[in-house]
Amino acid sequence: MARLGDLERSVMDVLWSSDAWSIDGWLTAREVAARLDHERDLAYTTVLTVLERLERKGFVRRQRAARAHRYAAADSREAVVAEAMMEALGTADDRGSALVRFVGSVSAEEAEILRRALEPAAAGSVDPDEPAPPLGDGPVRPDGSARSGDVALPDGPVQ
Fold it and tell me: Where does the UniProt annotation place the signal sequence (predicted)?
């Protein structure tokens, strides 16, 4: 998947957060332009061009609605970020070393999320559309008891 420029990222940010002000998550180019207006002084045609470019790149879906088109993000922000991470990893000569360096740069909370996500991967049953494993419950055995030495992390978003 192609990379996003600054303006494209701003437009995608509007689309990714469209549920806050759209009933169904779809916005017209004018609605996107209005949301961007406080950040940048952009012409409607510029926003329309960016939306069309994002559609060609596969980031945006478009549907006809009366006399205008409406736009929505084709994938979640998390899916796009994961794809970018996979592309970056694909450029490494030694994927293992790149992964080790990446893991060395994450916080303890992020490392716990990765550890929990890797458990099903090791068993061969990963669904990439599943949300990240929740924090706070602590790792458990099949019988429901906690594993010794494992630490339960507090609930809340990862910063």
Answer: none
The answer to whether 44 and 30 are in contact (CB under 8 A) is yes
Residues 69, 87 within the same domain: no
Q: In total, how many domains does the chain have? A: 2
Residue 107, domain member (yes or no): yes
pTM of this prediction?
0.69
Structure confidence by residue, pLDDT tens digits, 128-140? 666 655 554 444 3
Q: Which domain holds residue 105?
A: 77-117
Residue 45 has pLDDT above 80, yes or no: yes
pLDDT at 152: 38
Q: Is residue 125 part of a domain?
A: no
